[in-house]
Amino acid sequence: MSGGQGFAHSLGRARASTWLLAAACAWALLLWLAAALGMGTRIAAVAAQAPGALPAPPAVVGERIGPLGQYAEAASRPLFTQDRRPRAFLAVAQGEGEGSGAALDFVLTGVLISPQVRLAILQPSGGGDSQRVREGAAPEGAADWRLLEVQPRRALFEGPGGQLALELRAFGVAGSAEPRADAGTSRPMVLPPPQPDAPQVQAAREATPDDARRIDDIRRRIEARRAQLRQQNQDAGDGGGRLRPLSGPAR
Q: Where is there biased composition of kind Basic and acidic residues (predicted)?
């Protein structure tokens, strides 16, 4: 009796950690006994199953694009043009050099025809410096277009798309109205001509081989008039120091 009471008394004095350690030992003992008896060493065989049926392929749908003939209306009425009418265009290959294949987007502002030289004065439609192009040469920015012939009121160019004539713009006339929507080709925008050389360009535009002498006479008159004005200004400056006041006491 005394031995049993002493064991009970010692259990009552045990700590909580002692009880947790005892529980872990008990679980370990149970797992060892289960493994010794063969738990987890036998796996039941699964019966073989018959293969299932394959999914059926989708039904074949007819051609949605249709024949090419039904799209003729799209070609005769383009979607991305204002008047829904076909326009001629020029295909340009890339990588053929700067200015190669470029469109002739210039305005003819003047021509010069004389026995020594025949040239056209061009200005970009978007604005910029004017350039002089002789017969047989190509303008800067449009190397594929060559000036074929200079006429009194127009210049004829030849390029990849054939021949193109630029009409001379008349000075002092307001810009023409926008081209009609049914026009076959569009003409580049006309800009005002440069003002400093207006008299010379006007004379050059009306020049013909027979009037070369008149052009030289006009130039000589302009130079003579300028020399006369310079002489008058110089004389007025030299005589200003000798002028005396008209009123006041004489000295």
A: 207-226
Q: How buried is residue 106: exposed, middle or buried, by Cβ count under 10 Å (0-12/13-18/19+)?
A: buried
- Burial (CB count within 10 angstroms: exposed 0-12, middle 13-18, buried 19+), residue 19: exposed
Q: Look at 195 and 72; give whichever has higher pLDDT.
A: 72
Q: How far is CA 161 from CA 90, 158, 186, in A?
A: 7, 8, 14
Separation between Cα atoms, residue 73 and residue 89, nearest integer Å: 19
The yes-or-no verdict on residue 49 having pLDDT over 60 is yes
Cα–Cα distance, 70 to 64 (Å, whole number):
12
pLDDT tier for residue 26 given thresholds of 50, 70 and 90: very high
Residues 6+ apart with CB under 8 A from 207: 111, 112, 113, 114, 152, 214, 215
pLDDT tens, 159-190? Answer: 887 888 889 877 654 433 333 334 344 454 44
The structural domains of the chain, ordered by start, are: 103-174+190-234 (2.30.30.830)
In single-letter form, the type of residue at position 206 comes to E
